[in-house]
Write a structure and sequence with these properties.
Layout lengths: L2 E6 L14 E5 L5 E2 L12 E12 L3 E2 L11 E2 L1 H6 L7 E2 L2 H6 L1 H17 L3 H7 L8 E2 L5 H4 L3 E3 L2 E4 L2 E6 L2 E7 L14 E10 L10 E7 L11 E3 L12 H5 L3 E8 L16 H4 L1 H15 L3 E8 H13 L3 E7 L13 E8 L3 E10 H12 L5 H8 L4 E9 L14 E8 L7 H21 L4 E6 L7 H8 L29 E3 L3 H4 L6 H6 L1 E2 L4 E2 L3 E2 L4 E2 L2 E6 L3 E7 L25 E7 L6
Parallel strand pairs: 16-17, 22-23
Antiparallel strand pairs: 1-2, 2-3, 4-12, 4-13, 5-8, 6-7, 9-10, 11-12, 13-14, 15-30, 16-31, 17-19, 18-19, 20-21, 21-22, 23-29, 24-29, 25-26, 27-28, 30-31
Helix pairs in contact: 3-4, 10-11, 12-13
């Protein structure tokens, strides 16, 4: 008969909103081992699997540490209680936990005090936006009807949680009857039990004992303090990321650029400081989606998006929020893993704001082949290709705006926008390759600009710090022949240096912070900028590297920056913390800029 060999979960720490999918290994009567689901509608060898999920509620009340959500709280900040900060943020598991978190924690007090001065109810908006976890104190005396009217459990129909049995000081509530289960706020602080049993398809009776898994306590999804938008005029934009009203009544649009950290690269060896449950893709994908959707950007440029994640998760999930999706996978001449694990660049845009006009795909491997054919001697061609072929790509999309540019009376003029999304080679020793890739991309964009009067946006992870040759080329349109990066050119592809130019009037969006006047919070933002380069101090923050690799460049002759998403500082990431973390699920931070198209003169 069909038998269960093994049942386990990728992570034993369940998080609210993150689907749990147990791995069930089965043995058929012919000794074949399978891992596919065997539902009642498609029995195998006359048997199917029946699943149940239970919430195990103790009669004891439980509070969860706000810093280490897998730990039970032992103390509460009374300042938070007085300031009416959401109770979930007031709990800590130890005095050391509270002390270590104080620099970050006191910001909550300051913001609550400021919000109360401006609006007595404002703190609820500030701290509650991403906080869907309810109270941090779990009332285990709730009845089943109070704790949950109805629950969604995978693809199973909705039904109320039922009290199954009591065992000593515990009550078992049945909460699901499908293979997967998504914990809810009602589960916080309680363990879950998964039960799997083989059932005879004819008699509908269980055959043999049930296989079970007991999880640790369900924890709330950590919620970072929402990042604010700052107007370039120096006026703080009220309402955290609440851009919908402004965008619908003006000719501005927002652009997000974000390296989301591919699952293939998010290993415990590289990021040992990040808890394993927070590094798991099942958690990170939900946290990333929540963050991306929360920014409400009109155009979203993501890097390090795996092919399978684009097809199975990001494209369908963002479609629900009104986005159309485009994707360019990296080439596979160097990559030797599964084709599904190859990452690439994904660009999304709101269908109600833009329509798709044209797409260009840039494969730097093809450009490398053309370059070596043209300028590299045959004897050196293999060596040259080994250095230049790195699978990096760029995705260029031409969009047409569906909104009018406020104040411009030109009804016959189409408003087009060209958006480039790229991820430049990561190897720091290949400075010549990085510069060549950026120069190749810019030359392609120049051709598009020459064929149409069109604003340009160049977004991505350039793996190049401010002041490097690639950054200098983007920002200044040329590279000084004496730039130290040009000393690394074994193939001679950067000679003569005078060819390293472009005519696009590109400016880094975040350099606008350096040009702002005096305003609320702007001095703090300027302290997060490098005064020598006018770029953020960091957009990539790990234990091994802190610096800026990500940029949004725009054509200054056709676009103006209206506002920018605030930058993070190291205090925002909490003491002794790097990225990714439970709060921020990538090792990069997102950049978001609001633009307005400049009025065009008629020709």
């Amino acid at each position: 008969m069909l038998s269960v060999l093994r049942v386990h979960l990728p992570s034993d720490i369940p998080i609210v909103g993150c689907e749990l999918t147990p791995y069930v290994l089965l043995r058929r009567p012919n000794k074949e081992v399978i891992s596919e689901d065997v539902p009642e509608s498609a029995p195998v060898d006359g048997y199917f699997l029946r699943y149940k999920w239970y919430r195990i509620q103790s009669d004891k009340k439980v509070a969860i540490c706000s810093i280490h959500p897998s730990e039970q709280a032992t103390l509460q900040c009374l300042g938070c209680v007085k300031a009416k900060i959401p109770v979930t943020k007031s709990y800590h598991c130890s005095p050391k936990c509270f002390s270590d978190a104080w620099q970050h924690h006191r910001v909550l007090h300051e913001r609550a005090a400021s919000a109360v001065n401006e609006n007595g109810n404002e703190e609820e908006e500030i701290f509650g936006r991403f906080n869907s976890t309810g109270s941090g104190v779990i009332n285990s005396s709730l009845t089943s009807s109070q704790s949950s009217g109805s629950l969604a459990n995978g693809t199973a129909p909705l039904y109320p949680a039922a009290v199954t049995q009591r065992n000593g000081g515990e009550t078992w509530f049945e909460v699901g009857r499908s293979k997967t289960y998504t914990p809810t706020a009602d589960d916080i602080g309680h363990a879950l039990k998964f039960e799997c049993v083989v059932v005879d398809a004819e008699t509908k009776l269980p055959v043999g004992p049930a296989s079970t898994i007991l999880t640790s306590r369900v924890i709330p999804a950590p919620c970072p303090t929402p990042r604010r938008m700052f107007s370039v005029s120096g006026v703080d934009i009220p309402g955290h990321l609440d851009l919908d009203g402004r965008l619908s009544s003006s000719g501005t649009f927002t652009v997000l650029s974000y390296n989301i950290l591919s699952e293939a690269y998010a290993t415990s060896e590289l990021y040992s400081y990040c808890p394993s449950w927070a590094l798991a893709w099942t958690y990170r994908r939900q946290n990333l989606l929540r963050e991306i959707v929360g920014y409400r950007a009109d155009i979203v440029c993501l890097q390090e998006v795996q092919s399978n994640h684009f097809e199975e998760f990001f494209a369908p999930e963002l479609d629900k929020h009104g986005y159309q999706a485009l994707f360019k996978r990296k080439t596979a001449e160097v990559f030797n893993g599964s084709i599904n694990n190859i990452d690439g660049c994904a660009t999304f845009f709101r269908r109600d704001r833009f329509s798709h006009v044209k797409k260009y795909e840039v494969e730097f491997n093809k450009a490398a082949q053309s370059l070596t054919d043209a300028v590299v001697p045959i004897a050196q061609k293999k060596t040259a290709l080994n250095r230049l072929v790195k699978d990096n790509v760029a995705l260029i999309v031409v969009l047409e705006a569906k909104f009018s540019n406020q104040g411009v009376d030109n009804p016959g003029k189409r408003q087009l926008v060209c958006v480039a999304n790229t991820h430049v080679n990561v190897q720091q020793e290949l400075r010549d390759v990085k510069l060549w890739q950026v120069h190749t991309l810019l030359k392609g964009l120049e051709k598009i600009a020459a064929s149409a009067d069109i604003p340009m946006l160049v977004c991505g992870d350039f793996n190049s710090v401010p002041g490097s040759a690639p950054h200098t080329l983007l920002a200044l349109g040329k590279v000084d022949p004496m730039h130290p990066d040009l000393a690394v050119d074994p193939l001679g592809i950067l000679r003569p240096p005078t060819k390293l130019t472009h005519q696009l009037p590109l400016v880094s969006a975040y350099s606008s912070f350096a040009r702002m006047g005096v305003g609320l919070g702007l001095e703090q933002q300027r302290r997060r900028m490098d005064p020598n380069t006018n770029e953020p101090l960091f957009t990539n923050c790990t234990r091994d590297f802190i610096g800026t690799h990500d940029y949004i460049f725009y054509s200054a002759d056709s676009l103006t920056v209206e506002s920018l998403l605030e930058l993070l500082d190291e205090e925002s990431l909490r003491k002794d913390t790097a990225l990714p973390s439970p709060e921020w699920s990538s090792d990069h931070i997102a950049l978001l800029a609001e633009f307005r198209c400049k009025p065009r003169t008629r020709r």
